[in-house]
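Deliverable D5.2: sample structural annotation.
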Amino acid sequence: MTVCAPHDTQSTPAGAPPSASADMRRAAFTVTVNGSYAARLALGRGADGWFPERWTLDGPEPYAVSLRGKQPEEADSEVLPLADGRVLIRRRVAERFALSLLYPAGPGTGELPLGAIECLYLSLLPPAPDGSSAYALVHRERSTALWLVHGGSGGPELLATVPGRCTGGTWLDRSGRLLALDRELDGLTKAVVVDLRRGGEVSPLLQITEKSNDRLLMAELDSGLLLVRSDAPGTDRLGWGVLGSSRPVRFPGCLRLPDAHLTPFAAQPGQGLAPEECFVAFRIDRGAAGSWVGVWRPVTKRLQQFTGLSRVARGRRDVDRRRGAQAAVRHARGAVRAGETAAAGGDDGRVRPHLRQGRRTGGRRRGGRRGGRSGERAAAGAAATGTVRAQAGLTMDTPIVRVAG
């Protein structure tokens, strides 16, 4: 299952966290690649304040465990679940960012410090494909540093420095080698690929026109489907293309809703070499009118909207009725089966793209999924099952790494 948290698509000053997007990330779940765990920063009642919350999703019923510390967390903290059940937390402490692993320990919470990075601003990247590593971006004035903050030999490790200001973060293979970032450079934002096995070598990924801003929102690895946001058609539009293909990027009219913002949050796996058949689930935000879920696939050229799922899309506290992250899969699946159709439209505004595929090793595409699972049933993806192996306890000093601004 491809699941991603919403991220900001607007530029922000270096060193300043984007407040609106930060609020979205706190409200949403971050799910591990294998679908076994999710985490979020939850708001307690009364004076309890913010605290990390871990959800177990691969059992008969999803359930949550609060990972409260001795004091409430700050509202700008970030959390990232790992496949072994621990949760990485990033906290701002004075002028540095401290990193720790949290885990249930009897009635309380255990904490393992990993280190700290002194910088203006640090943001965690989406979960890595291996489920155990964690990466972060450090934003400088004219460049962005990519750090391995967990999974290395000891403490945070600087992996690469990319010219320009980078946001986003999408993995393009299952080996954790190719990372796509949206890089703002010389007034334009383009998606680029960072090759972690070649010392952080940067190469272009998406260039629809020379002067367009082209961002990557999601990549579904089985089918190669890419969801992009670009102003190449003249205004900011959602489009889709295929990784490594010279086929035109299409901007469907059905994904252009008046006074609404669409954010993809899940895609159907198992559609090997058939991107047109891949279902994609969107969160639809329409200001005071609220938010809800939409389901779309390229071949149908229509967007189905289900207004009863707004709390699932936002990931807010509604544990009894929605049961958190797994409910997004369950309700989106049922909504597709119901066949309720809302806005429909045809493709328009085709623009010939320039799509480049980075070196792909270990990113072999798989054929269609075996079994009787229908596309509707997997509209928002199904959590992959597998054995979750606990890592050995880590013992290390807590280094503080200074980063030039």
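Annotation notes: The mean pLDDT is 76. The chain is about 10% helix and 40% strand.
The annotation will be released with the project's public dataset once the embargo ends.
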